[in-house]
Amino acid sequence: MATAELQGSYGGLYFGFCTLISHVLLAGITAAIVYKCLVLKLVHTAGHAFYCTIGFVFFMGEALLVRNSAYLESSLGPLNLNRLHAVLGLLAFLVGVGGIGIKTWQKLERKREDPNATVRHFKSNHAFYGIIGCALLLGSVLSGLPLYFINGGFALKMFHRFFGLSGFLALMVSQMFGYNTGFGRRQWKAHHQKLFKFFTFIATITTANYEFRRFVRDVAGLATDYFIGSDATEAREDL
């Protein structure tokens, strides 16, 4: 009993430390990029980077963090915590997709002004993981709506969590590839790009690790119940 309590205490301290690091890094990365984009007056790719970073890095990361916060749950209550989680998730989708829309519109305008211009849509790793992340985030939003208004079943909750977690991971990978784009190379020196990648990677791990652990544990529990339950049922039927 004492060993289990000690392990639980250490686990709580570890995940609490990870959460603190996540809040600091998500806010710091967002503030640094937003400041640069505002200095550039949101022209061209700066507008895309501004909205995508706020939506996909900050709002999405915070949506994952607050949902698993025992402190906020005790302070706000389960219902208000779910509302906060839902608002952050919806803002992540709307603001982030708005950023993608800005970049897509700019490319279409360039093609309209110069029909001979070479315009690539979703060909880079940055764009590929970004569009995959958006699709997964859309799945999270659509599966989250019925959960918000009605008490959905276990399967729907698992799909919602899968879409949210995998969408966040894909979008953070896209963010890291974004530092290698022409915009990233023009605005930051090589060592600054490396620092952004490093801090974004750490923020990804510290933000996702608790939800990933819970998700894997719940999937393993579901699989165990299914297979062991099936074996037990067959054994009873044989009797």
From TrEMBL:
CDD domains: Cyt_b561. Its cofactor is heme b. GO terms for cellular component: membrane. The chain crosses the membrane at residues 12-35, 47-66, 86-105, 126-150, 162-183. InterPro entries: CYB561D1/2 (IPR045150), Cyt_b561/ferric_Rdtase_TM (IPR006593). It is a multi-pass membrane protein. GO terms for molecular function: metal ion binding; transmembrane ascorbate ferrireductase activity; transmembrane monodehydroascorbate reductase activity. Keywords: Electron transport, Heme, Iron, Membrane, Metal-binding, Transmembrane, Transmembrane helix, Transport. PROSITE patterns: CYTOCHROME_B561 (PS50939). Coiled coil: none annotated. Pfam families: Cytochrom_B561. This is ascorbate ferrireductase (transmembrane). It comes from Drosophila mauritiana. The gene is LOC117151035.
